[in-house]
Every structure is written in structure tokens, then in C-alpha cells.
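BUG-630 | component: ligand-complex export | severity: low

The export step for iron/sulfur cluster jobs runs without errors, but we want the raw record kept on the ticket for reference. Input record follows.
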Amino acid sequence: MDPASQMMARRAMDIGLELVWDRYEAQQPQCGFGSLGLCCTVCNLGPCRIDPFGQGPKQGVCGATAEIISARNLLRAAAAGSACHSDHGRHLAHTLKLVGEGKAKGYEIKDVEKLRKVAAEFGIATDGRPKETIALELAEKMLAEFGRQEGSILLTTRAPQRQREIWQKLGIMPRGIDLEIVEGIAKTHMGVDNDANNLLLSAMRVALADGWGGSMIATDVSDILFGAPAPIRAQVNLGVLQGDKVNILLHGHVPILSDVIANAALDPEILALAASKGATGINLAGICCTANEMLVRRGIPIAGNFLQQELALATGVVDAMIVDVQCIMPSLGEIARSFHTKVISTDPRAKFPWVEHIQLDEHDALPIAKKIVQIAVENFANRDGKQKFIPSEKMDLVAGFTTENIFYNLGGRFRATYRPLNDAIISGRLRGVAGVVGCDSPKNESGGSHVEMVKELIKHDVLVVQTGCSAISCAKAGLLKPEAAKEYAGRGLREICEAVGIPPVLHSGSCVDNSRILTACTEMVREGGIGNSLDELPVAGAAPEWYSEKAIAIGWYVVASGIFTVIGSPLRVKGSAVVDKILTEELAAKVGATWAFESDPIKGAHLMIDHINKKREALKLSPMMYEMYE
Ligand code: CUV
Ligand code: SF4
């Protein structure tokens, strides 16, 4: 759908580069057993596979059936995804600790108000104490949440009472973050848990430990250290790369790296060096969730989402791509070899073929960041002008909406309150709210599904909140501009957007910031009038092009929190009718929500709209204001 990507993909073909779409094609047909969740490699009696047509084996060597194998694999994926996001949260908490101890030169506490607010939730005295002392105590308490062995994760107290009661009753209240991940994986060893229902309960528990634990800590600490986002204008797509400047791409997830690089790029000595090489400046741009983190806090432009990481290199004008962790294609180093581009990894957790490693050290990050930026600047001179190929497409957007600032942006300018949002839903001006999140995937429409789904939702007066690569896809299509309301939104939503000056699609940050959607929904419950718990709210979630295990964890904690969730390609459980039915039907009686699998984004949007309508009926809300006359 995105012309810049199409143009770059053709260019890549012309110069003989293999990209994610080529490799996807080369994998066709993908393994049917794996796709259905019927392949098991858990132990060395296998690998085993179950025949989906009932002709061949019905059990693995150990006796595991289709339902055991698919549920077990799903729990493993949820644990891996939670581990990834929660490790990101731990990394931030650790940096906060160093800052509190005065051992992290180059970092500071930017949002003292948020520090105090979160510290108070952790039972820390804040009055009259220096911010560093509070930060140290908070960081220690947050780190203890990872190793907690008793009780439950503290931030689950943010959830509505009914959700907490459900989690207690089902035995899925998350205890410690690490504990749930370890126990989840332990249960998937051969001969431990062999009950599909019990395995899936653990998938919810491990995901809740991420959503209301690790990811929530990541969001809170990022706000404390780098400043809470506020609505900000910026630009997106490959056209943000500039031919006459040193282009540095920041790719990955954890803002600890990118924030300090952004500071280093402002250094007068480095800027002078850039000028001496003939560059008119240094241009930073982001890829994937690092892009979202930098966008919502600094207005740094976004070069692209997950599927554009290789395309960005093919422009021939990227002097350095600096990466940390997650969603970084192992192909990048090899692709960069066809250009002058230097790819530099910085996190000891993540090294790649053909990629130089320069380790970031939070104790004194700025000199290392400067060294990295200097490498990029010096590399500017090595550019081959003949390789330059920059698409012109770029789009304006507004981003940076949080649980806290939505208070103001929805019309409560003088009083912080969710009242205007809830009232708009009650009166039928707004149908409800949808979170559309997650990756872009060649299996679906390489970003197009997000755009189609979101257009359909806002047309039906559903306010959309976004994170991750989904937000980037919709931003490229112009849906994150306030003007998009006029063009695409239904009348009720359009009136609200125009009155308040917001886009119909609100960008709330990176994938860990899905935790903001959980807390925003909780605020809607607290404000009253549209349900007493998350499962009663007229809201729904979707990840139309998910690819990663992190997305599985996100989906699980959203469903376990009572929010109906539609995903594009099905979870790999279709080989077991039993597991499929638990996910798409039986969970409703347990947690008040289910998964739905729908690859057509318009149909997916209507599953969400129907769901929201049902919730509205159950709450006896007014009919939709403008539909009464239709
Ligand atoms: Ni964490 S998880 S592709 S960068 S949204 Fe982007 Fe977002 Fe999926 Fe990865
Ligand atoms: Fe096969 Fe069972 Fe081992 Fe899986 S755990 S590989 S099904 S024997």
C-alpha cells in the first residue's frame, strides 16, 4: 500500500538485493504441521508431528496429543514474548537505579512528577526527599518485582477490582515477573503440564506479568528518565532521509541507547566534524519501536516500521544504523555490505553477522555515543553518489498521547478527567475505543491491513489508539493527522476531533506502551457510566499483522484483562479443535473476552464494531447519535 516501500522494493530488486518478501516467498509453502501447531521439538524423542487429517500419528512419541502440543507451544511463545518486553523493563529499572546512585553519567530524571506519582504507588515516601533518593528506592522496589516470590505484582493493583478477582479465582494473578516466565517454560518441558486448559491459564499468567508488570515498568521508567510524552508533530516514511546530511538510523527498542545518541548528535564538535565532511548537518531517524520512543518524546522523524528496515539501507544514504534489541533482522549486516552503511550493535544481548559491536555502558554513555556518531559522520565521506535513491514520500503526523495527557486532550482542559470521553460514549457520539497495535507482516498486507482496519473503525465512530509498527503504518497513510478526522471519521468522532483538535487515531508510543492502553481503559472504568470492569467496556483490541512472540504476549494480557482481541493470522493452534475453541469461545466465561482470528481487516474491524455494539447494548447506552436519523 505504501508507495515509498514499493519503490524501494523495486530498486532493491534492480540492484539484486534479497529482502524479507523474497525470503518469505522462498519459504512457500510453509510447513503445514508448524502452521497448525502440530509440530513438537520439545524433547529428543522427537521431533514429532501430528497428522491433521487423522490418517497418520495422533500422538507424539511421549503420547502428547494435538491439544497438548499446540497449547504447550503457545505457552512457550507467550513466555518468550513476555521475557523480551520484561527484560526491556528490567534494563530501564536498572538504569534508573544507576541514576539514583549517581552512577549513570549522561542520564537524569526528567519527569519528577511522574517519579513521585509512581513512587507513591510503590509505598515510597516522597515529601522533602531528593529525586535521586526516591529514584533509587523506586528502582530497587521495581527490580524486586522481577524476583518477587510471594504475593502479587504490585502494579496489578492498578487493574479494576473485578479483573483482580477473576485473576485470583482462576489462579492466574501474576506473582513475580521472572517467576512466571520460568514457571511457564518449566511447565512446557516433556512430562510436566499436559492439560491444555492449564497450559493456557499459564499463558495468561505469564502475559499478565508482562502487561501489568514488566512492560508497565518499562513505560513508567521511560517517562521518568526521558520525560512523559506530550502531543508532538513530526514526519514519517523513508522520505525523511536527507541526501545532504549524515543520516543515522536508530533501530530496536530500548530508549536508553537512542536517547543518548540523540544527545551526542547535538554535540558542537561532532556537528563541526560533519560540516568539515561536507554534510549540512546530522539527521536522526527511527525504525520500529525505537522510532516510536524517539518520536513521542523528541519529535524525531520515523524512517519506517519493521518491514522497512532493509528498504532503508537500500537508499544508499544511511551512514550508520545503530541497533539494540528486538525485531532487528539478522539480514541487515549482509545487506549493508552492498553499501557504505555501517551497522553497529550496542547491547551485549544482541550481536549480528557482519555487524560491528560497540557496547553501550550506562555508567558513562555519552562518550560511547559520541564515538558511534563520529563513526557515522566519518562514514558520510564514503558514500557512493550513484547508490543514492531516496523516495520522496513523507507524511505529517501528531503523536504522544498518554493515559495522563488524554485527560486534557479530550476536552478536560481545566480539570483532569475522563468525563468528556465517557460522556461522548454514553451519548452515542462515540461508539467506543479500539486499540490497533502490533507488527507489519508480509503474511498479511505489509502494513495495509492496519490502514484498512483503522479507516473502517473511525468511519464507524470508534476512536482508535495505536502503538508499535501499526501506528507507523497508519501514520504513513495520513491517519494520524488531525485533518484525517474530516476525511475519514464518522460524524460523531469527527465532531469530537474537530472540537478538541486531535486526530481520530491516537499514537501512544511503542509496544511496551500498550500498558498505557490498559491504564487508560482502567481510567474509563473509574470515571464511571460505561461499565464496572474492563470486560464491560465498549472497547476492543486488534493486531492485524502480528508476527512476533511479543505480540502473542500482548494479545494474551489484553484478552486476560477482559478485552476482545482480533488478530490477522491465527495463533498456531488450528490443528487442535479443542484449543481453538478454548481461545475463541470458552475464554469468555472465564475472563470475559476471547481471541478472534480474521485475516480480512474489514471483517476484523466489523468483529470489533459488533463487539462494541453488544457491550453498548448490555450497558443500555443511547443508540448512536447520528444513526437514529439514518
Ligand atoms: Ni515492539 S514487535 S515489529 S518493533 S510492532 Fe514493530 Fe514494535 Fe512488532 Fe517489533
Ligand atoms: Fe515428541 Fe513428546 Fe518429545 Fe514433543 S515432547 S518431541 S511430542 S516426544
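Assignee comment: Attached the raw record above. The domain at 402-622 is CATH 3.40.50.2030 (Rossmann fold).
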